[in-house]
Amino acid sequence: MSITTKNMDKNTLGIWYGIAAYTIWGILPLYWKLLQVIPALEILAHRIFWSFVFMALVVVVTRGLKPLLSAAANRKKLLLMFFAGVLISVNWLTYIYAVNNDFVIEASMGYFINPLVVVVLGVTVLKERLTRWQLTALILAGLGVLLIAVQYGRVPWIALFLAASFAAYGLIKKMVNIGSITGLTLETFIVMPVALVYIYNLEASGIGALNTTSFTTGLILAGTGVITATPLLLYARGIENTTFSMMGFLQYIAPSINLFLGVFIFREHFTFYHFLSFCLIWAALAIFTLANLDILKEPVLTSGKQVSN
Questions:
Q1: At what angle do helices 224-241 and 215-222 cross, to 10 degrees?
Q2: Distance between CA atoms of 94 and 214, rounded to whole angstroms?
Q3: 297 pLDDT band (50/70/90 cuts)?
Q4: Are the C-beta atoms of residues 276 and 147 closer than 8 Å to each other?
Q5: pLDDT surpassing 70 at residue 173
Q6: How far apart are CA 260 and CA 164, in angstroms?
Q7: How is the chain split into domains, by residue range?
Q8: 3 state SS of 193
Q9: Rounded to an integer, what distance in angstroms lies between the CA atom of residue 17 and that of residue 207?
C-alpha cells in the first residue's frame, strides 16, 4: 500500500469518526429531555463526574495507565489538557446559561458559527490550506450564519462565545500529541474535583437529584458520563486522523439534526430566514466535502499564490 493510499485511508477513517461524534451530539437533546426535572448546573456537574468515572474504567480495561501517567508527567501536555478541560466545561456551562435564560436560538447559532471559527483557526494557526472550492464553501456558510444574525437583530455574544470556546478546545486537541483516551481522562480528572464538591454539597443538603428523584432517573443521570465521553472520544480520534478544517465542516451534522428535532419533534418555531440559512450552510457542506474528497479539483490557495495539487 502506497503512502498516498495510507493517508487517504487515515483521512477517511477520521471523517467517519467525526460523523459518528456529531451524529451522537445531534440526538443528545432526546436524552436531556429525560432529565428536564433536574437543574441544568447539576446535570453539568454529573456529566463531568460520571465522564471521569467512565474514562477511568476505560483506562483500566484498555490498560492505559502507563501512557496516562506519562502524559501527566509532561508539564506541557498537562497544561494543554488543563486548558482543554476548562474550555469544554465553560462551553457546557455557557450552553446551560443560554438555555436557562431563554437564549436557545442564540445557542443554536453558536454551533452553526463554530465550524467557521474552526476553519479559520485551521488556516491561520495550523497553516492548513484551502482550495478555491473550499473557500467558496466557507463564504457560503458565512452568508448563512450572517443571515441568521441579521434576522436575530443584535450581536450574538453567547453564540460567538460558544463557537470560540469549542473551536479553541478542538485546536488544543489537534495540537497536543496525546491519545484520545489519555487526553479525555486527563481533561475530566482536572475539572472533576469541582463537580464532585458541588454534587456532595447538594446531596448533603438533601436537595440533590440522587435524593429527590427516582432510581431510574438516577441511572439516566449516571449515564450522562457514557453519552458525554463517547462522542468526545470519537471527536478526538477524528481530529487525530483528518484535517482540522474538515472536522469543522462536519460540525454542521449536529445542529442539522438538532434542527430536525426542533421542528418535527419538539415543534419549535422555524422561520423562512432559518430555512434560507439552512440551505446555504448545507450547500457549503456539500461543496467542502466534495472538494475534500478531490471530486472537485482546484489549485490550492495559500498566501495569495496558487500551488498545484
A1: 10
A2: 28
A3: low
A4: yes
A5: yes
A6: 24
A7: 3-307
A8: helix
A9: 39
Which one, of 260, 289, 258, lies nearest residue 141 by Cα? 289
Contact at 8 Å (CB) between 47 and 224?
A: yes
Nearest Cα residue to 171 out of 230, 92, 244, 240: 244
C-beta separation of 235 from 21 below 8 A: yes
Neighbours of 67 (CB within 10 A): 16
- Among candidate residues 233, 249, 229, 237, the one with its CA nearest the CA of residue 111: 249
- Residue 290 near residue 132, CB atoms below 8 Å: no
Give one DSSP letter per residue of 278-289, joined into a string.
HHHHHHHHHHHH
pLDDT tens, position by position, 234-256 = 988 898 888 877 887 788 788 88
| Cα distances (angstroms) measured from residue 196 to each of 56, 167, 201, 212, 233 | 15, 27, 9, 18, 22
Q: 276: closest CA among 179, 150, 118?
A: 150
Tens digit of pLDDT for each residue in 94-138? 877 776 676 777 777 788 778 778 878 888 888 888 888 888 988
Angstrom CA distances, 274 to 75, 102, 103, 145, stand at 46, 18, 16, 9
Q: Which residues contact 201 (CB under 8 A, 6 or more apart)?
A: none
Average pLDDT rounded to a whole number, residues 140-149: 85
Side chain identity, residue 4: T
- What number of residues does the chain have? 309
C-alpha cell at 50: 460520571
**Backbone dihedral region for residue 198 (phi beyond 0: left; psi -120 to 50: alpha; all else: beta):** alpha
